[in-house]
Amino acid sequence: MGIQFRKETFRDDFSFRNSPEHIRRFPFPFHEDSYMYAVNIEPHRPGPKGSVLEHPFDVDEHYVSEMEDRALVLAEDPLRCQSLPHMTLAGWDLLELIMTSKAESYPEHFSLTRDGDNWHWINRPLNIDQTFVFGDTTTLPYGPMEYITRQAQGDYCILDQRDNNLWMDAGIVTTQADWSLDFDIGMNFFEWHAPVPLAHEMGIFQRALKFLLNVQQGQPARRLNWTMTINPRLDTSPENYHKWGPDRTTVTPENVGQKVHLRVELQTFWRLPRSNALVFPIRCYLIKMDELVTSEKWAKRLHRVIRDLPEELATYKGLTRYRPTLVEWLSKYDDGGVTSPGFGPD
Amino acid sequence: MSSGTTKLDVTVADVVPVNELVTRFHFRPTSGGLLPTFSGGAHVVVEMREEGKAPRLNPYSLMSSPLDTTEYTISVRRDDAGRGGSLFMHNRVKPGDRMVVSYPVNLFSLDLRAKKHLMIAGGIGITPFVAQTAQLAAEGGNFELHYACRTAALFTYGDLLRERYGKRVHLYHDDRGEKIALDRLLTSQPLGTHLYVCGPAPMIDWVRGRAAALGWPTENVHFEHFSAPQPGKPFDVTLALSGKTIRVGEQQSLLEAIEAAGVDPPYLCRGGVCGQCETNVVSHDGTFLHNDHWLSDEDRASGRKIMPCVSRFEGKSLVLER
Fold first, then answer.
1. Which of B5, B38, B108, B112 to mutate to test binding with chain A, by most A CBs within 10 Å of its CB?
2. Which residues pair with B15 in a beta bridge?
3. What is the pLDDT of residues A203-220, one digit of tens each?
4. A180: which DSSP letter?
5. CA distance A260 to A258
6. Which range marks the domain in which residue B207 is found?
7. Which residues from A are below 8 Å from B111, CB to CB?
């Protein structure tokens, strides 16, 4: 039993697919037929069984292949993982959070045994069996943050909290929507968000920061964000723009269904207990247009959202070049009928 | 209550008189197991419930070692002129009692970038430093504690801290005329030192003022006021959004009175520092008694905002946007 992990790639031949069950659990981000920024933050409480929100840290059929892709990115570019010296304690906090959570959510795949500071961690999908001393970095092959996030889907930013601000002082970032940890490391909340259009004027970041500074232990929060990606490529980084940027010119009416992907980030926010830092996991989910339109509702809604998206947002999300082709393709699935409220596929 | 923090059900494991004024309370999880990990400087909000009385919620710093979460300990200084929260703790709470405390919240966090942590404590303001020094000592952190108290008999945990950390702890007895040589301390620290102060308001003002005058960057100066809400004359308040009129009792905070009416504003510290319960004033005819450390002078002058956790009102009418 347990999850059947797919063997697939996010580069070269792009063999990534979602199984039919995984299409149904995709975290579709639009609850209505249009989109504008909002501080759409809510408590990160357990969601329906089988959904990506069922467990604090979702593990899905792409887990093993995503971790292989992360290892490839890190081998080429070690600066995708950085931790300033004062952030080691926060790394241990994160390791504890992920290990205890995964062992509890997926006992058939992960187990953790603790005897004081002597810990024993088993990760069956990745064939890892590790004993170590909690708090002693010499007993792990990597620093604590890197060790555990090489075994956890999604990017992780650890934000130090001081001076009424948050500081990007540690992270591992290999599945990002065109931003760079190496560029942002050490920046504060307003500095790393500086490139986002419109939201500053709307006061969004002031309100979001105020909320985040007050995220409490035991009360994690979450929000969804989205963009689109051509080909199922996880590593759409500025460092590798030369590899994926040109893909945007390859979209044709014939290949939209296979090439264009909706990319949704499930972002969660957790107060870490020892360091008082905030960890910000950014989990990326991809779905092909051919997969997405198996839901009539999602097809109609996505058509309307992309068609009506303000120009600044379309530019920021990098859709400009292929938006007309995509809208034309999606319009075939939109009979103009009413869509039901909520995020679900029906 | 849905606002504030997640709650923990605990049982009082021990009640230990420390000296004439201070008593220590040990809490263990009622369901067994471990309590949530916390960081040095964190506090919990303790709910005090008495038959026939509205509940009181007071914040207390955790003073146990963050490395040991089998129990939480707090130390409560008896305040005979206060609202009765500390008297309740001293006189009524017994081992075996079940109580509710909040998850830990840290509004007085260590800056882990510091090359050295310079700590200044006055009186019961020592409690967050007991936890912080335990945390730092375990990590090989560099700290120095200067702790002033009125008399040897009231020197809460002075001996304990000397025993644990030796020369890193400096004790100053007011009744012996011993005084912290603050200017010398502040001008002789290595670059990258962070300064922390917790104690009575005049001490915090003194330390912050000298640090600013001697060129310390504000980012390196951390402080925590530990004021509980003070009692005062009863007053009436209209809650415009919920359409209720309430009376705030002499021993009750405005926030507690709002909660007692079934309205649930957000809160965290209940000590006037975190800003969560900031409330808009719709109209007023009278005088605000602002006791918080949150509102700016402009906010206060505007008469448009109040922090109901610690502040009060005297006058004819007060209407709040709650």
1. B112
2. B25
3. 778 878 888 888 888 889
4. -
5. 6
6. 116-224
7. 162
